[in-house]
Write a structure and sequence with these properties.
This protein has a single domain, classed as Porin. The longest helix is centred in the N-terminal third of the chain and has 6 residues. The protein is an all-beta fold and 301 residues long. It has an 18-stranded antiparallel beta barrel. Strand 13 and strand 14 form a beta hairpin.
């Protein structure tokens, strides 16, 4: 995979501060963004990051690299908050289409609204938090545009499709989170355990009706960086998924290796230029040998 490095050259005539990628056990807020967007807000803020453009390609074994036509453009404000996500992709029949997501924040920097405009219309997520920035409520909504021009959105009305609410109990180093559905019925319990440094070391959950359980353990190095995540789930059979994180001497994430029941299934490698800017993410499916490539480019305020 390192042989692809010379294909991905980008240069910048200045130095940067902080790491661009954020790896954290605090996944409560991760679903607010796309699965590929775990950029460090501190990096975006300090370095006045304006735009990240991500272009996707694929390399199957013994075949040349092929562009997929899929891309993401992430826009940030001057405080390092992501405010817009533009996704370009091909629909059936090789028709190019786009999906736009806007992010809105409260005064404490928590996302209060995420609205997406895609071929099916406008949809939104709304979020509410307690004084400790823990999520109290979220809803998934179908939004109706008062304007005929879909590029200019003005909310006419919003219909709640699904919602959840949360209650918290804190005892010593453990937080219990009770999850209620839109009928106000408890259907799930989460337990989050912390170490003495306020780092999450274990998360577990239990579904009330089915009794189905799951657990995730987290391990850290001397610098406080997440180095291992172990997920235990049991559906038809017991599954153990382990992810190992490796960093360079500057704290930049170099790789993620994922194993399922001790079988190596996925390898992600992150390539940087001389200014510590991420230039590419390479994700290899170990079974097929297929490599999925994301190339990154940047603009600054």
């Amino acid at each position: 995979m390192r042989s692809l490095f010379f294909l991905l050259i980008v240069s910048f005539p200045f130095s940067l501060t902080a790491q661009i990628l954020r790896v954290s056990a605090d996944e409560i807020k991760h679903h607010l963004y796309s699965s590929d967007a775990y950029f460090n807000k501190k990096f975006a803020d300090i370095n006045k990051l304006k735009t990240i453009t991500c272009k996707f390609s694929i390399k199957k074994e013994l075949q040349p690299i092929k562009e997929t036509g899929r891309s993401y453009i992430y826009d940030f404000d001057e405080r390092g908050q992501m405010v817009k996500q533009l996704e370009t992709f091909y629909k059936k029949g090789h028709v190019l289409d786009t999906s736009i997501t806007y992010f809105y924040y409260d005064e404490k920097g928590n996302i209060s609204l995420k609205r997406t405009n895609d071929p099916q219309g406008f949809f939104s997520y709304t979020y509410e938090y307690d004084s400790n920035d823990r999520m109290l409520y979220y809803s998934y909504n179908r939004d109706e545009n008062a304007n005929k021009n879909k590029r200019k959105f003005k909310l006419k009305r919003s219909f709640v499709i699904f919602s959840e609410s949360y209650k918290y109990e804190e005892r010593d180093s453990i937080i219990k989170r009770t999850v209620l559905n839109d009928l106000g019925t408890i259907y799930k319990e989460d337990f989050i355990k912390f170490n003495g440094f306020k780092q999450i070391i274990e998360k577990s959950h239990r579904f009330i009706v089915t009794g189905k359980k799951g657990k995730t353990n987290y391990e850290y190095d001397y610098y406080g960086r997440l180095v291992k995540k172990t997920e235990f789930t049991k559906a038809i059979k017991k599954l153990e998924t382990v992810t190992i994180y490796e960093y360079d001497e500057f704290g930049n994430l170099l790789s993620e290796k994922t194993y399922r029941n001790e079988n190596h299934i996925i390898t992600k490698e992150f390539l940087y230029d001389e200014n510590m800017l991420l230039k590419a993410q390479l994700t290899k499916d170990e079974a097929s040998g297929t490599i999925f490539i994301i190339k990154f480019s940047y603009d600054f305020h």
